[in-house]
């Protein structure tokens, strides 16, 4: 028993498999060495490749990659597999282990796997002249460097690179079997956010420290569909800006109503900005087009809130300026006229605040003094006078006109900025 068992263990693996193979296959496999490439001593072996894109499942801006399911087909000629006949032999995929196959790999692949339901999705076919067709069904996640400065009006160019791992250009040569037509499936492909605008193939070489290796590159250009972002982000942000302008038609005395509109639109815009960034990488180097637009909208909404604060302050300041301090008798600065105009009024107000007792002498004959007492003030006092003069230039005679100006200036400026924004990001 032990003698029989020992003899069975000595049977070579290829011979054991050959016992269950048809005679034609046994003849082909007999003396075949799968560890040596075809034309081992007669130059490199040429390998033609073609692709079928079954699907592109996801395109991630955060990870900057895409996941695709592809059918990879490789063709080469192995003179050791020639046989008599006029029909090809389709073999079981598990017999690939008995033949030499190229060591092709996907360069930028992060994660890949070969489908194995219900069996490994591999095909091997041998033609009478020794040509071998080897096909695989692979799902791979490939890195794709993206420029998101024009997001969501951007175009991305991604690649799928195929190289030989161990054989250099002296051993293996890669080529596309049908040129640009070697890749199929993109014409009928439907993606959620993208449209495939163009695709082409190229042949190059990869240079490493260990040598020069053959490389095939498939390029495809993706254009993002902006309609989704218009409905999801741009239209709501525009409506929020228009809603903030409603406060310009509300009376300034309605403080709760105007403050409520301003604060609500600011908070809603902040939430919209945070939601728009959830599917994007948090990189400081990317100032995206959507960030610029949301920043513009937020500035207009916040500006509308500040406009009411300024208008309300000017209204209160106007009401308080009508009642000046009374010392001895009633006196209004509005009735006081001098060649220096408003500047002298500010100087008189400043003098009254510092020395109220002197107001009597001022009101008795204001035109004779011509401000001589104020010229003799100290240097810090003169600087403050000049500052009051500068601020007086921005004095609003009627604060209620601020809302009238805002009703016209805010929409006009927003339309102009929108024109520049869309023209720049769509055509430049």
Automatic annotation (TrEMBL):
Similarity comment text for this entry: Belongs to the ligand-gated ion channel (TC 1.A.9) family. Gamma-aminobutyric acid receptor (TC 1.A.9.5) subfamily. GABRP sub-subfamily.
Gene Ontology CC, one term: chloride channel complex
Organism annotation: Balearica regulorum gibbericeps
InterPro entries: GABAA/Glycine_rcpt, Neur_chan_lig-bd, Neur_chan_lig-bd_sf, Neur_channel, Neuro-gated_channel_TM_sf, Neuro_actylchol_rec, Neurotrans-gated_channel_TM, Neurotransmitter_ion_chnl_CS
One MF term in the entry's GO annotations: GABA-gated chloride ion channel activity
Protein name: Gamma-aminobutyric acid receptor subunit pi
Sorted UniProt keywords: Cell membrane, Chloride, Chloride channel, Disulfide bond, Glycoprotein, Ion channel, Ion transport, Membrane, Receptor, Signal, Synapse, Transmembrane, Transmembrane helix, Transport
Membrane topology recorded in Swiss-Prot or TrEMBL: Multi-pass membrane protein
Keyword Transport: yes
Compartment(s) of residence: Apical cell membrane; Synaptic cell membrane
Transmembrane segments: 226-250, 256-280, 292-311, 408-427
Catalytic activity: chloride(in) = chloride(out)
All copies of domain Neurotransmitter-gated ion-channel ligand-binding, residue ranges: 25-225
């Amino acid at each position: 028993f032990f003698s029989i068992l020992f003899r069975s263990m000595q049977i070579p693996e290829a011979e054991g498999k050959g016992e269950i193979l048809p005679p034609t296959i046994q003849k082909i496999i007999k003396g075949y060495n799968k560890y040596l490439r075809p034309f081992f001593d007669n130059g490199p072996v040429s390998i033609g490749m073609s692709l079928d894109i079954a699907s592109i499942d996801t395109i991630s801006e955060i990870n900057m990659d895409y996941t695709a399911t592809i059918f990879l087909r490789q063709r080469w000629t192995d003179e050791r597999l020639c046989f008599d006949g006029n029909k090809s032999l389709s073999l079981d995929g598990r017999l690939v282990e008995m033949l030499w196959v190229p060591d092709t790999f996907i360069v930028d692949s992060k994660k890949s796997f070969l489908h194995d339901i219900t069996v490994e999705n591999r095909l091997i076919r041998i033609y009478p002249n020794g040509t071998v067709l080897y096909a695989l069904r692979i799902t791979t996640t490939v890195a794709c460097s993206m420029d998101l400065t024009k997001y969501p009006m951007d175009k991305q160019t991604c690649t799928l690179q195929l190289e030989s791992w161990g054989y250099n250009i002296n051993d293996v040569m890669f080529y596309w079997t049908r040129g640009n037509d070697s890749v199929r499936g993109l014409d009928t492909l439907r993606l959620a956010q993208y449209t495939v605008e163009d695709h082409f193939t190229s042949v190059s070489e990869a240079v490493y420290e260990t040598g020069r290796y053959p490389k095939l590159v498939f390029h495809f250009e993706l254009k993002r569909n902006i309609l989704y972002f218009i409905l999801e982000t741009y239209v709501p942000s525009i409506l929020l800006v228009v809603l903030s302008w409603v406060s310009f038609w509300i009376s300034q005395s309605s403080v709760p109503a105007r403050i409520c509109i301003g604060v609500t639109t600011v908070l809603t815009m902040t939430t919209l900005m945070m939601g728009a960034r959830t599917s994007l990488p948090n990189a400081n180097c990317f100032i995206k087009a959507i960030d610029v637009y949301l920043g513009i909208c937020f500035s207009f909404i916040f500006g509308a809130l500040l406009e009411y604060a300024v208008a309300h302050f000017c209204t209160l300041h106007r009401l308080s300026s009508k009642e000046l301090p009374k010392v001895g008798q009633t006196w209004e600065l509005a009735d006081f006229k001098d060649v220096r105009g408003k500047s002298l009024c500010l100087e008189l107000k400043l003098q009254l605040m510092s020395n109220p007792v002197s107001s009597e002498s001022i009101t008795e004959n204001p035109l004779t003094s011509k401000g001589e007492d104020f010229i003799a003030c100290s240097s810090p006092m003169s600087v403050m006078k000049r500052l009051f003069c500068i601020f007086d230039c921005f004095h609003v005679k009627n604060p209620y006109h601020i809302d009238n100006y805002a009703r016209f200036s805010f929409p006009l400026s927003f339309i102009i900025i929108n024109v520049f924004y869309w023209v720049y990001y769509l055509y430049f």
